Each structure stands twice: as C-alpha cells, then as structure tokens.
Amino acid sequence: MTALSHLRGIIFDMDGTIVDSGLDFAAMRKEMGLRSGVPILEQLNELSPGERAEMETILHRHEMAGADRATIIDGADRLLAALSDEGRPMAIVTRNSTETTAHTLSRLKIDHFFDIVICREDGPHKPDPWAILEICRRWRFAVDEVVMVGDFELDIQSAVNAGCPSVLYTEGKPPEQVPGADLATHVAVHLNDLYHLLAPGQDSI
Ligand SMILES: [Mg+2]
Predict the structure, then answer these.
(1) What's a single GO MF annotation on this record (predicted)?
(2) d(CA 116, ligand 1 centre) in Å
C-alpha cells in the first residue's frame, strides 16, 4: 500500500508530466506580442475575435511543431504501463488543443493508456475544476477517489478547486523552486517518487 494506491483513478497533465514537447513559451509570447507572467490562454480571452484568431494560428503552429518533436519523459511510459496493469483508469487534462494532444499521444504510442482525454476546447480549462469533475462524473467516482498529477501550479490549483488530492511532479527540480508545491497534497521530485506514491506492489521502475 502506498500513499495514493487506494485511489480509483489517475488524472495526468500531459506536457511536462508525461511528455516533453519543448514548447518555448517565451518565444511564443514574443511572437504573439503577449506579456509574460500571465498564461497565454487567459491573455487570448482578452482579445477581439479577429486578434484572437490570428494568435490562435500562431499558437497552433508552435503546438504542432511541439507535437512533432515531443518525447516521452524518461520512465513515464513504464509508469503508465505499470499503472495500466493494475486496471485503474487514467485520464489526461491538458490546456493543449485537441488536435495537438491527439497527435502527440498517438505519435508516441501512449494514447491507448487513457480512456478520457480532455483538452481546452472541451470546457473551462485549468485551474477551473470542470475537467476533473467531468472525469469523475464519467467514471462514477467521488472526487476524492481520484488524483491529479501535474508539473505546474495550474494543475494543482485545479485539484484544490475540485477537492481532490494532487501530486506536483517537479522533474528533478527542488520543490521550493516550483510554484504550487505549497498547495499540493504530495510532491514527487523524480518519476520514481511518483511511482512509489501511485503504484503499489513493485519496487521501482
Ligand atoms: Mg504541464
């Protein structure tokens, strides 16, 4: 029994948690003329429909380039395979688009691990709790029977807003350098830590 092995379903963020698409958010902001410090999607909401469409074209080009070069974070495929063997359902909640998410997951041959994938077109995006609550509704699980795993503050905030436990995965960085660590139920610095939190019965990956 591990800290989270009793949970019935696992919800992952995609980029930075399972895959690395190397998106250069600073370059994207610069090309779109957006300011730093505020997430891109929130800034697009402030624009007129015409400006927004123009920015979404730029965003889509960067995201598809990221999907084309994306790699699986080392060990994440083994983690997914181990969790899949246990039979607990897994889902993805991402602020990425449906097209780039599907392309990324199928290119890396990990799409079969997830029975629900929720992208930004599907509803209010993180930190809104909508996606987590929608997944719980479809799985027929209580919200405290799932966990949200992500590498960013917005992932953890969405879990807090939904009322489910969360794991912040820092990908090797000290937790104090990662925003959201203070809000997370658990922090996993390395993928092995994540494995030990989530997967019972096996020593390591
Ligand atoms: Mg992420």
Answers:
(1) phosphoglycolate phosphatase activity
(2) 17
| Residue 61 shares a structural domain with residue 84 | no
Pairing of strands 19-20, 71-72: antiparallel
Distance from residue 19's CA to the centre of ligand 1 (Å)? 9
Task: Compute, in angstroms, the gap from residue 14 CA to the centroid of ligand 1.
Answer: 6
* 24 alpha carbon – ligand 1 mean position (Å): 13
What is each CA distance from 171 to 6, 7, 68, 174, in whole angstroms? 24, 23, 22, 9
Determine the distance separating the centroid of ligand 1 and the alpha carbon of 169, expressed in angstroms.
Answer: 9
The encoded tokens of residue 43 equal 């800034």
- The verdict on 77 and 105 lying in the same domain is yes
In DSSP terms, 166 is beta-bridged to 148
Domain that holds residue 122: 9-21+70-198
Binning pLDDT at 50, 70 and 90, where does residue 201 land? low
Dist. CA 85 → ligand 1 center (Å): 24
Ligand 1 center–CA 17 separation, angstroms: 6
Residue 204 counted as domain residue: no
For the segment 49-68, what is each residue's pLDDT rounded down to a tens digit?
Answer: 999 999 999 999 999 999 99
Cα 111 to Cα 103: distance, rounded to the nearest angstrom: 9
